[in-house]
Amino acid sequence: MSKKQRLIISVVILLLGLFCSLWIYFSSKGLTHPVGRIIDTNIHDELVNKVEDTYRNKDEVRHQIIHVKVLSGKHKGETHTISNYYSPSQVLTQKYHGQQMVIMSFVKNKPTIVSPKRDGIVVFAIFLMISLLILITGFNSISILLSMILNSVVFYFIIKFDIMENGTQIFAIYGTAVVLFAFISLIIVQGCNKKMLVTLASTLLGVFISF
User: Fold this and answer.
1) Regarding beta strands 110-116 and 101-107, do their DSSP bridges make them parallel or antiparallel, or are they unpaired?
2) Which of 15, 35, 62, 98 has a 20 to 30 Å separation from 140 between CA atoms?
3) 13-47 CB burial, b ≥16 within 10 A, e <16
C-alpha cells in the first residue's frame, strides 16, 4: 500500500468517524438512562464559597442553574431546572456548558444530571486511532487492531474474574494476564515462528525481572 493510498483511506475513515461520532452524540436512543440537552446558551454561574484544605490548596464552590430538555424516556419532552454545584478543579464535580448533551436520572420524578454524554467522543477516538494506524502501518494495522480487540476481550474477563475472587488472587490473575497479552499480540503480529518465541521469552523475562 503506497503512502498516498494510506493517506486517502485514513482521511476517509476519519471523516466517517466524525460523522458517526456526531450522529451518536446527538442521538438519544439505545441508552438505559434518559438523555437530555441543556437548552441554555449561557448558563448562570455564581461563586458560592472559597475553600482551602490543610495543604493550602485553594478551590471554589460554584453554583449553576441549568435548564435541561429531556429527549428520551418517560419524561421525554419535559423541561427541568436543575441546580449544579461544582469546583473549577472538577476532581469530584462537573461543570456543564450551554447546548451540552447530558445523561440524566429521575428519582421519585426528581431530575438530576449524572454526567456529560461522552459516547460520541469515545467513538471518534476509536476512529482516530484506526485512521492513524492505517496511515502509519498500512496493512499491518489489521493485525494490530485484531490484537487490540482480542486483548480487550481478555482484559474484560480478567476484570470480571478478579471481581469474582474479590481481589484475593491479584498476582496470579494479572500475572496470567501479562502472559496472555504478550502471547496474543505476538502470535497475531509476528506469527508462530522462532522469532516470535524469542520475542515472547525476552518480553516476559523483562517484565517479570522489572516486577
Assistant:
1) antiparallel
2) 15
3) bbeebeeebeebbebbeeeeebbbbbebeebeeee
Query: What is the C-alpha separation between 29 and 197, in angstroms, rounded?
Result: 47
- Residues 54-111 have pLDDT tens digits of 788 888 899 999 999 999 888 899 999 999 999 888 888 899 999 999 999 998 889 9
Asked whether residue 92 falls in the same domain as residue 160, the answer is no
Whether 23 is in a domain gets the answer: no
Handedness of CA 178, 184, 189, 192 (dihedral sign): positive
Domain that holds residue 166: 139-210
> How many Cβ atoms from other residues are within 10 Å of residue 102's Cβ?
23
Phi, psi (degrees; rounded to nearest 5) at 203: -65, -50
Tell me, letter by letter, the H, E, C secondary structure of 17-85.
Answer: HHHHHHHHHCCCCCCCCCEEEECCCCCEEEEEEEEECCCCCEEEEEEEEEEEEECCCCCCCCEEEEEEE
Assign 3-state DSSP to the chain and report helix, strand, coil percentages, each to 5.
50, 25, 30
| Grid cell listed for 174 | 494479572
Dihedral angle, C-alpha 24, 28, 29, 32, nearest 10 °: 110
* pTM for the predicted model, two decimal places: 0.70
Q: Are 111 and 182 members of one domain? A: no
